[in-house]
Amino acid sequence: MSEVTFPFPFPQHLELILPEIILATMAMVTLMMSVFLSPARQSIVAWVSIATCFVTAAAVLYASGSAGLTTFYGYFVLDPFAAFAKLLMIIATVFAMFLSLDYMKKEVNVGEYYTLMLFALLGMMLMVSATNFVTMYLGLELMALSIYVLVAYQRDVLRSTEASLKYFILGALSSCMLLYGLTFLYGSTGSFMFSEMGTLISASGDELRFAVLTGMLFVLAGLAFKVSVAPFHMWTPDAYEGAPTPITAFMSVAPKVAGLVVFMRILHDVFPGLQAEYTSILMVMAVLSMAVGNIAAIAQRNIKRMLAYSTIGHVGFILLGLIAATGNGYTAIVFYMTVYLFMTMGVFAIIIMMRRDEIQGELLDDFAGLAKVRPGYALAMGLLMFSMAGIPFLGGFWAKAFVFMAVIETGHIVLATLGVLFSAIGAFYYIRIVKYMYFDDERVSFNFVKSGPLQTIVVLSTLIIVAIGLYPEPVMALCKLAMANFV
């Protein structure tokens, strides 16, 4: 009997993909559990999903090393950068699941809700480990399709289904733009691998310049949509307002981390020879994002819409690190994403705790007089708002300061000045919430949800933001370690 031979050797270093194998397996297990468990026992799926995230995080730590290794013939990489990004996304997912425990208790088919979160996380983890456009796009669509459904999970709420439909249509458009740009890049280079494309593009002559620049423009536009960069931000306010609040918190952090990591990899690996060209594009996007996000947020009366525009503004600040395109710039981006995770989750935990009876806790008026009745929550919310505004010395201050310093080092003084200006404008709507809590009279009765997980997230997030503000060096050291092999 003849031996069976394969066209390719068996992949080496398969342990690198162990976290994704665990996550994919458990996502399918939780899906079957949600089918066979009775409605009264669906909460078991939530705890199994949370446990899966912890096991996945342990697998990431086990599989990662000081040097980046690849598997599946170079299509998948696990380096310190990818490992750090995966841990951030897992933390965001765990926090979002804890935020969902009470929020989704009365919803039907709640088991599928947590399964979709696991699949979204799986897609994001594939994205950050992708070394080629095929793997990246598969992860991107797995993430996007899961989040489309999660946004519309409250099917009886009109704004939820409307937001999901808008998100889906615009998301499909952005995917088409990304694929259209990819056809130009593949046609010019004949490769999907990031590093190979970068080498060929850098060595290409003027005859391919138009095709490469066109491809780059469409790829950047498609990715800009995923991370809510202006002028591709149109879906963000509606999706944030219409989605269940835990999903809004999840969308605010985890997909942004994944999208920005892909942004960094593509710019660093695919377009090193076009830095002058993409820098010009990013400068326009950064200024527009900072302007639109911080100015439009002032007019919002719904805090979820306000935080949506806030996210657009924060992404504008993060883009300054991409414009710097230095080791300090990339490290500042990772530091910013870490701080933003805890700021955002703490704020949304407080918003969810204010939800009771017919009051959603989403209007700015709902926060009026909070300090007189719940001084602890008011203090936590105030510190988190001050941190988002960049007030010294809280975590958000250092996040912005490091990005500004990185962009100043590369000579972009005007950009840094505009960043400081828009940060000052943004401070208005953050501090306005503090004014509502401490200086206005109570307008609604405060009857906070008594939830241990929510209280833990509020306390933990606030303490971490204060600790980073007072002593940022340990977190910055971790970020530098994660980016050591990237630059």
Major beta sheet summary: 2 strands, antiparallel
Order of helices and strands: HHEEHHHHHHHHHHHHHHHHH
Strand order of the largest sheet: 1-2
Amino- and carboxy-terminal Cα gap: 51 Å
Radius of gyration (Å): 22 Å
Helix content: over 70%
Structural class: mainly alpha
**Backbone shape:** globular
Total DSSP helices:
19
Number of domains: 1
For the secondary structure, the number of strands is 2
Report on this structure.
This protein is mainly alpha-helical. The chain has one domain. The protein is 73% helix and 1% strand. It contains 19 helices and two strands. It has a two-stranded antiparallel sheet. A hairpin with a 4-residue loop joins strand 1 and strand 2. The longest helix is centred in the middle third of the chain and has 32 residues. The protein starts with 17 loop residues before the first helix and ends in a 5-residue tail after the last helix.
Which features would summarize this protein structure in a list?
487 residues, 2 strands, mainly alpha, globular, two-stranded antiparallel ribbon
